[in-house]
Amino acid sequence: MKNYIVGLTGGIGSGKSTVANLFKEYGIEYVDVDNISREIVLPGSTLLHLISDRYGESILNNDRSLDRAKLRRIIFNNLEEKKWLESITHPLIRQLTMEKIRRSRSEYCLLVHPLLFETGQDQICQAVIAISVSQHIQLERVCSRDKSTKEEALKIINSQLSNQERVAKAKYVIENTGNLDELGDKVSVLHQKILNTINE
Ligand code: ADP
Q: How far does the centroid of ligand 1 lie from the alpha carbon of residue 144, in Å?
């Protein structure tokens, strides 16, 4: 059976993980590309060796894990380094993503990706959901979740597609401006809509 893939995208702090877990209540599996990008650089991995060979041991935390904030700072300020990092990580991320999607057994599978459109991964999806939030709410949620500063959060937000661009490209939009109960109701309605489309 061919997997029916529904992309789930939104900027940092828009609510992707929260929404993916609400879909899970209906038995819908998800593949989270953020999680995969963390898995591939765990201590002992080939990729982490390549990264520490290039940037030195100071790119590691005391427990030998990758200091992701430090790496982020390097690539934010240097396009060449960003390209290098992407050249070693993207192929593996894609391979693992496809393997996980193939293993999924739910009626459809969510592909959770903050840069779904930016990386062209929307092309493997039958439909895409964009989570829409105002920048004000996004900043508030990121800063309280990650304990990051407003400046750091803004830098990430500005490196991603704008909310408007994402919404314009997506088939479905979830406005995540209300409370968690409201979000749950929206997911329930959308889940039915997607099932109806699949079974048409
Ligand atoms: P993402 O995966 O897109 O980065 P998260 O799902 O982690 O975003 O959400 C960011 C933060 O905002 C989390 O701490 C989450 O609990 C919180 N959050 C998400 N949606 C809501 C909501 N509707 N009401 C209150 N808090 C929310």
A: 10
Contact 15 CB / ligand 1 (< 6 Å): yes
The pTM for the full model equals: 0.91
For the chain, the domain total comes to 1
Q: 180 CB less than 6 Å from ligand 1?
A: yes
Please say whether the beta carbons of 39 and 89 come within 8 A. Answer: no
Element (H, E) at 73: helix 68-76
pLDDT in tens, 101-135: 999 999 999 999 999 999 899 999 999 999 999 99
pLDDT band at 76 (very low <50, low <70, confident <90, very high): confident
Q: 149: CA distance to ligand 1 center in Å? A: 17
Q: What is the extent of the structural domain holding 67? A: 5-198
Structure tokens at 182: 């409201």
Q: Which of 22, 9, 1 is nearest to 133 (CA)?
A: 9
Atom 12, ligand 1: which residue's CA is nearest?
A: 141
Residue 12 in contact with ligand 1 by CB distance below 6 A: yes
Query: Which CATH number does the domain housing residue 143 bear?
Result: 3.40.50.300
